[in-house]
Write a structure and sequence with these properties.
It is built from one helix and 38 strands. By secondary structure, the protein is mostly beta strands.
Length: 495
């Protein structure tokens, strides 16, 4: 039977044998890898699934285990590597504020950050370590519990990151311990509703959260369930309406095209959804795991209608120098390529890699192999300065953890700065928040596909602009003096 991570394993990944690995790069770009912060336990330790997220202040925000309580932190870090702990979990009696925030954060349109904890909250919950909470935290560190999970919540113990949909409501999924799963919604004021649930045989153990497609539907993955031949199923890709109706399993994995996706999905500019599976693939003999399934993993794409394409099977050669077991959700960068991380593999059977997938040429490149014990569980984020940022679960230079307490790193591919709207669609007259750098209250101008917009510059890293009457779908352009920055994705003007 394929191994299932019990609750302890989900909180503390299995220790790998310490192997000294070297960086492996592809000479197609200038690449600079920099360790910005080494966690020391007190300021956090072992950041898990949730990738970093950029805030209005230009800093990167995230979550870890560890901290002064030992049960997790929320932190912010400047692009230069100055770390500030914003909150320590289990600060309230009986950990009513939750603990183990494995999913990371999402930036809300109100400027606050929202997230979940896997554990804590309700002491009376039937699960051994409680059910978890949904929370928000302001940029100044004011923490509020929005929802405390209880026994009857089928989505208790959420692991995937929240998203804020076009209607302003937050959505997520959960149910790691419930023998199935549920999709839920929650408002910024804390009104919680489970909109759909289904049994394990259909889909279960969701780790990657949900995203909203350009069609308005929610899409996600589950690590088990479906019609695949694995015990309990090999996992699925699904879609569902925001009102919980018409849940559809778009694809059931079948081992050779993947097993057990931990990563979520992204929708790329070509309209397809891309993701990764932690196990399975066609390279079955090169990275056999204790579970009886290949722990190589795959990259895939799928259309909104369910047309599935397996793009790449990790570890095609003995040694897995390209990486294996991708667990973080890939991202699409401003150059159009997909970037992601693997948890295992790399040079000298190392501790994971940074990879690139070119959707045009259909080619895979290993860009970097993490050294030492710097295993990476989360995916990357591209900040508006053009650089990639990520976290290592292990590694770093702290002596306070046997295999390192983890670290924050940057990876520079030489991509230029850009601007990122917090939402990528809106009607004429809607106020759109835009993140970037170098904004000036006197000289910065904004246009939507060439149509000038009125704007309000709040800081050097954050402004708002109104979608002008007559604007058409296209890029957002922000100009300050001789510097022009373009949005990373097309902005859709709604009718």
């Amino acid at each position: 039977m394929r191994d299932r991570w019990n609750r302890a394993e989900r909180c503390f990944l299995p220790v790998l044998i310490a192997i000294i690995a070297v960086g492996l790069t592809v000479p197609c770009h200038a690449q600079i890898y920099t360790t910005l912060v080494s966690f020391d336990g007190t300021n956090g330790a072992n950041p898990y699934y949730g990738p970093l997220v950029q805030g209005r202040d230009g800093n990167l925000w995230g979550t870890t285990a560890g901290g002064t309580s030992g049960w997790g932190t929320i932190f912010k870090v400047t692009p230069a590597g100055v770390l500030t702990t914003m909150y320590n979990f289990c600060s309230q009696t009986s950990c009513a504020d939750g603990y183990n925030p494995v999913a990371g954060l999402v930036l809300g349109r109100d400027g606050n950050f929202y997230g979940t904890t896997l554990m804590g909250g309700n002491e009376g919950c039937a699960f051994p370590q409680s059910c978890g909470v949904i929370f928000k935290i302001t940029p100044k560190g004011v923490y509020t519990v929005l929802h405390t999970y209880i026994n009857t919540d089928l989505a208790a113990g959420p692991v995937g990151r929240l998203i804020q949909a076009s209607n302003g409501t937050f959505y997520g999924d959960g149910g790691i311990d419930n023998g199935g799963m549920a999709v839920f919604k929650v408002t910024s004021a804390g009104t919680y509703t489970e909109i759909a649930s289904w049994v394990l045989a259909t889909a279960g153990y969701p780790y990657g959260g949900v995203i909203q497609g350009t069609d308005g539907l929610l899409y996600g993955t589950t690590s088990i369930g479906g019609t695949g031949t694995c015990n309990d199923g090999c996992g699925t890709v699904f879609k569902i309406q925001t009102n919980g109706k018409k849940m559809v399993v778009l694809h059931s994995f079948n081992a050779t095209d993947g097993v057990g996706p931990i990563a979520g999905l992204i929708q790329a500019t070509d309209g397809y959804f891309y993701g990764a599976t932690r196990e399975g693939g066609s390279s079955l003999t090169n990275c056999q795991g204790n579970s009886g399934y290949s722990v190589c993993g795959t990259l895939f794409k799928i259309s909104s209608g369910g047309a599935f394409t397996s793009l790449y099977s990790f570890c095609p050669e003995t040694g897995c120098f390209d990486g294996s077991a991708p667990m973080g959700t890939p991202i699409q960068a401003t150059d159009g390529n997909l970037y992601g991380t693997t948890y295992q593999g790399g040079a000298l059977l190392g501790n994971g890699t940074i990879y690139q997938w070119n959707p045009t040429s259909q080619t895979y490149s290993t860009l970097y192999t993490f050294p030492g014990n710097d295993d990476t569980v989360a995916g990357l984020v591209q900040a508006t300065n053009g650089k990639f940022y990520g976290t290592n679960f292990y590694g770093g230079n702290s002596p306070d953890c046997p295999y390192g307490c983890g670290a924050i790193f940057s990876f520079d591919m030489g991509l230029g700065p850009f601007v990122r709207p917090v939402t990528y669609s809106g009607k004429a007259g809607a106020t759109i928040e835009i993140l970037g750098q170098g904004f000036n209250k006197s000289t910065t101008t904004v246009s939507f596909n060439g149509t000038a917009a009125t704007r309000t510059v709040a800081s050097g890293t954050y402004l708002t602009a109104k979608v002008p009457i007559g604007a058409t779908t296209g890029s957002i352009t922000v100009t300050t003096g001789s510097t022009t920055l373009i949005s990373d994705k097309i902005f859709t003007v709604l009718q």
